[in-house]
Structures
1.
Amino acid sequence: MKAKAVLSAFLSFLIACSPLLNRGPTAESFILPTDKEIAIGQKVLPEAITQFEGIYPDPEVQEYVRSIGQLVAQHAPRKLPYEFFLVNSSQLNAFALPGGKIIITRGLFLIFDEESELVGVLAHEVGHVSARHHARFLEKTLGLSLLLQIGALIIGGDDLKERVILQLASIGATLLALKFSRDQEREADRIGVELTIKAGYDPRGMIKVFRKLKAHTKGSPPEWLSTHPLPETRIKEVSELIEKLKPPPNLKRNSPRFIWAKKRVESTKPSYDLYEEGKRLYTRGRKDEALAKFEKAIELFPRNQIAMAYAASIYLEKGLVKRALALAEKVIQIDPYLLWGWYIKGIALFKLKRYKESIQALNEAKKRVESYAGIYYYLGRNYEALGDIRKAIEYYRMALKLATGKEPWYEDLRRRLYRLGVLF
Ligand SMILES: [Zn+2]
């Protein structure tokens, strides 16, 4: 561990000091080390899962998706600790994070009719990671020395400093909106088709997915197509590739386990539909009607943790703090990644004047999404209440840096900073 830290410090020194090494083919030999790539992906994972509305809360279905992912990943040209997650979002989307974390939405899963379609999509994402597309993107946009520093700090488990937190915020946002080049897509398609065949599945599943997504483009286009355009060209290219590879006959297309898993996910759709309605009402400010939808969604599927998180936040707004706290605890039990359980627990405990416990909960929230402004505001409020003004100011400043200005606490934050003599 120590030797690695010294080495990366040395490398970043070398690169920072030599303008020649920063560009041109020489830089190719200084690539983001795999352990740092994995660390960055791991760090961004809870943020990605939170943005896509939490882990689909059925461990057996998760285990199924994981096992299918592993069938593909074991043949990947690049060996990494690949992991696969099904998330609650109703978008039609799938993506990977650096280091091999692969995420697929409930919405996309529900348009599959055969296991080979799931395999095709997961294999395509493994293809991107295997070809280092994410790593190369990070190297190009952030520069290697910064990446090495961030990676080293994450691996070292150090308390992250302001600059690194701000960088992480931008890395997270960029990775979640990442678009690859046409050539990179072609490469991921090629690796994906090869992996699908090696895993024993019919690679035409991928073409079926393209066709379905294309049919969805009337109306609002599916999200996976916004990062994966040109379905027509790709259907043609992937078909040609499959013909060239001459896959053996009788490749697997479906399985009883897929049919079982899809039925399970389908059975909770009414609960998620209510949740979506609740969300729409919530953003229009119709909180009471929204709450009724969320409560009904939880009744239909008692593990619907994202509906619980919304309901808990409405309880908080209504001053039903203990109810919010109880629900937040449930969210935490169901989903270890989702920010909202820990965040709402932190706010509820603050409101109950249980400041030390609130700080603990908010630090857990911070471990999940380091760059979420509200965490710093409420940490500041706790420290101010405890009389530690120096710490309170430190957190308030960070909250101000990360805030968008639209937060419900934003004006209060500015008032406090004026009062404490930080803003003039
Ligand atoms: Zn792709």
2.
Amino acid sequence: MKSEERKRKFLLASTGGSGCGYLLRYFYHLLSVKGETHWIASENFFHVLKQEFSLDWQNINANEISRNISTFFNEKPSAEQNHSFKIYDHKNIKANPASGTSNYEAMIILPCSMKTLASIASGVAANLIDRAADVALKEKRKLILVVRETPYNLIHIENMKKVTLAGGVILPASPGFYHHPKSVNDIYDFIVDRIFRQIGIDKTLVSYEE
Ligand SMILES: Cc1cc2nc3c(=O)[nH]c(=O)nc-3n(C[C@H](O)[C@H](O)[C@H](O)COP(=O)(O)O)c2cc1C
């Protein structure tokens, strides 16, 4: 069975790192994947999203995500939407993602700030994002941190090492250029492709010409 044919279930968190375009493009490609995503965003994510794209998503509801994404990418919303969303407040530490009994296949943090990386590396589960990541590690589920900072200081590097040793995947938002991108979306797609490969979504987002 192809991986798109079974219903997928992911946990996605977004924090205040630069690179919200990677997330918008991730949503865009996810819409055609059969399944559901539960999404948690930090307050700082919304600040950065506003700064980068003048988008105010603070009060967005789950049903509006696909329409907003289609509008953003100048496309008509598809009649056949395969993916549904549920949104959790990052302060709601009692919500389902905080529990080891939650059954996500993988958790993706996109973008992942150095502050959230530090919280995860030190086991400080103070909000729902940090706690859900803590749960993913303890339950040995896939945890992917799409980190973004440059340059890194030693603390960032030590934190990435700790999370890697604990079983997480550090997937820096460091796009390659050997696919000859012709637009910024092609650049975002390079990273979305890498995330999809990690979580077993079989889509060709990037073609590598000889
Ligand atoms: C416009 C803007 C861009 C930022 N970009 C980054 C970034 O790329 N990486 C990072 O680690 N922090 C970045 N920050 C700082 C984080 O948002 C800040 O450390 C915040 O406390 C992160 O909190 P959170 O992880 O709870 O969202 C940025 C802040 C702003 C306002």
